[in-house]
Amino acid sequence: KIFYEDTIANKVKVLGPDVNASQYRFEPVDRETIRYGLGAVKGTGEQAVNEILRAREAGGPYKDLFDFCQRCDKRMVNRRTIEALIRAGAFDSIDSDRHKLLASVGIAMEFAEQAERNAMQSSLFDIGDVADEHAPEYVNVRPWDEKTRLMEEKTALGFFFSGHPYNTCKKEMSRFIRRPLCRLEPAKEMTAIAGIVVGIRTQMTRRGKMLFVQIDDGTAMVEVSVFNELFEAERSKIVTDEVLVVEGKVSYDDFSGGNRVVADKLMTLGEARARFSKFLMLKMNGNSDAHKLKSLLTPFAPGPAAVRIRYRNSEAECEMILGEAVRVRLDDALLEALNGWLQPENVEVVYP
Length: 352
Known about the structure:
This protein is an alpha+beta fold and 352 residues long.
């Protein structure tokens, strides 16, 4: 991690790990570029990486996951290692569908073992050359969203490498978060800020336990002070790798020479949506399945956000405001379910 931060500070480009290009250690590609080392991927190890490099040198670049599993000695390159490399993006140059590769590791290893048994049997009976094995199909699974992709990547590398999870909600957050963390300034009034929780530490004070929460929006990292009373009331909202919205007082700290943020209110992303939005608009466009709509909304009711329905068919269009009983919490899970049913363009959180 220290090495990675140093390269960022010095504006050195770091290329991701690659089973067809990386060595065991980080190595320079040119004066401004470094290639990530396979040995730095969690769950690999020197013995496994040396075997990957040996097989690559002997047979050339790997063609796909099945080819990789066939050519590497499975006693040294086990399932855990392969899955870690997929999560880290080390197979992206071959196939960037990490979700598909991860789901297919099991059948790829079984295929490699069967091919090895067939070859040994043929050799035993001196049949001659073994016919080429036809690789099985990849497992068909639902693609990862960007957040899942980055979380899996962090599992393998220890940090987000190819992107930042805050970017998945950055456009929406800009409707009520006026400044990115890199442009935060002291102010007399309360300021709303947001970011991904990346660190938490505690300290005992005369007023009890104080929490220091580090949040990161991809532009900067800011530490937020949370006093004991607020922490005890809102502790469930502080979750590592999740979005946290903070309303608080920003002041200049003479001791550190930077800004100090003291939280007054903490909100999840769903609570912030409801706090700052006008309503949830659903465009039905001829879909009249009221039972399906109720089944999707009910788990998130009651909540603070109003729901409006815009219904249109071949003859007319109207807009309905649902009653207080079906006001909902605007959690990600609700929006994902509605997007899957009505399509994303027909689901909109409307802001002033």
